Amino acid sequence: MTDTDACLSGRHGNALQHARLAVESGPRDACNWQHLGLTLLQMRQYDEADVAFRHAVAIDDACSVAWNCTGMLACRRQCYQEAESCFIKAIEARPDDTAALCNFASSLKLTGRIDEAAVLLAPAVDALPGDLGVQWVAAVLANYRPDLGCQDVLRQHERFAAALEKSVGQPAPMPHRDHNSSGGPLRVGFLSPDMRRHSVAHFLLPLIRAMDRSRFTVLCYSLADVHDEITALFQLAADGWRDSSALSDTALVSRIRSDEVDVLIDCAGLFEGARPAVLAMRAAPLQVAWLGYPSGLGLKSIHCRMLDAWSSPLGAEGDPMSDGIALIDGCFLAYDPLADEPLPQRNAYRNAPVTFGCFNDSSKWNPVMLDQWGQLLREVAGSRLLLKARALECAEVCGWVHAEFAARGIGKERLELRGFVGSQAAHRAMYGDVDIALDTFPYHGVTSTCEALWMGVPVVTLLGEAHAGRAGASLLHAAGHPEWVAASFEEYRGIAGSLAADRGRLALLQAMLREPLRGSQLFDTRGFARRFELALQRIRARANHLNPRH
Hints:
The chain has about 550 residues and is α/β, with parallel strands linked by helices. It has helices at about 5-25, 30-40, 45-60, 65-75, 80-95, 100-110, 115-125, 130-140, 150-170, 200-210, 230-235, 250-260, 275-280, 365-380, 395-405, 425-430, 445-455, 470-480, 490-500, 505-510, 515-520, 525-545, and strands at about 185-190, 215-220, 240-245, 265, 285-290, 305, 320, 325, 355-360, 385-390, 415-420, 435-440, 460, 485. The protein contains 22 helices and 14 strands. The chain has an eight-stranded mixed β-sheet, covered by helices on one side. The chain has a six-stranded parallel β-sheet with strand order 11-10-9-12-13-14, sandwiched between helices. Helix 1 runs antiparallel to helix 2 (about 30-40), helix 7 (about 115-125) packs antiparallel against helix 8 (about 130-140) and helix 8 (about 130-140) packs antiparallel against helix 9. It starts with a helix and ends with a helix.
């Protein structure tokens, strides 16, 4: 246990003692039970918190906060139907409290019902432009919506940015510094809640390990409230480690400024655990976004996003430094499996039905995509679809998936639905049951695409307009397989159908896919570090040119 952990444990322990005493002295007071639940929630004692919140709503059915928290905890257990009922109760109890509305929309997103989430939130988005929670959730949802174009997604993020910037006010002036005027190492800070066992670690950890320490000093600001064996690897790789999860936004800004960070790189955007207010307060003189989130945040304090020619909304014709985008030469990232598992065992029978698969998060499902998958299954006789997602631990979600495909003429016997597995080795072994991976759209997979390729599974993707729908094309080009990038729905199904048509060729491809990948740009983490560093130097030089006192 770290000193910070011990301090928090003591502080929470005192709060918990007081909350329990309040319940003992007033067991029929719903507020006492609600306060106890909130204290337990902060301590991540979720089961006890759930009991406390249920006591609160049993006493007072109009206890909106308790209903909202009960719904959040139901989501954690993948009990989405129960969560929906709780959120509705919370909204009925207090229609002007948008917290439950936002959580309700987020729970719908988690189960692939992105269209319903958008409809639910739309009135509040228009009516409450200054509500930070509403605009935040709407911005996140925009990344997943097939009905929105690139400019629509940008506008929603600008609405969020306006609400956040109004909330935090004018950033304090950046203190004068001249430590780097002599040309010493550039001090680079990475801000992320995912320096742990998380998909982001496969891209961020190898970069930090490979950066040239004669030119860069690397500081890690971890926003994670849990530590694991991957966290320990980050701590070893960094020149400076800052456990920042317990710091307020203001305190974290002060810490980053006191560390005299030259460039702060945000790797979370608006996803869970992100701290965009730190960026709005301008923690560092130069702030950029890279990895972890598919859109720009619209904040004036962010200098640019680091993408590449394929994944940029500007496409390959864009200026390497324009419109808030800085292009990295080649692919915008490089992947490290962090474990060298053997290729999975596969069905030896070439006459077995072909199995398409998708291990992307269920948030990336949508009706347009399901239409295309249903049509593909109809076009490839006897084919099956294997879906793996945490939400599929919920029986109601499985029933919804079966109903959606039934409406598209696909029986449940042609679907295999699998939930979460805790072991990375067991998770990757499941790729042995997949012949061809189908990418999601308009929001592509990233880690799932890299994993599938690594485990010998070809991936078919559809080129979109925004970065979220172009990342897969960048990955496949870097892996040496641009032929699996489709420009239309018809081509997407055509590529998948062509791969499925020759089982012998497919089996050979699966067996031989991994070795060339080892030498590809997608897996060249050291080469990527050099290209990333070059992009950082270009960003720094341009910032200095535009503002010599930057």
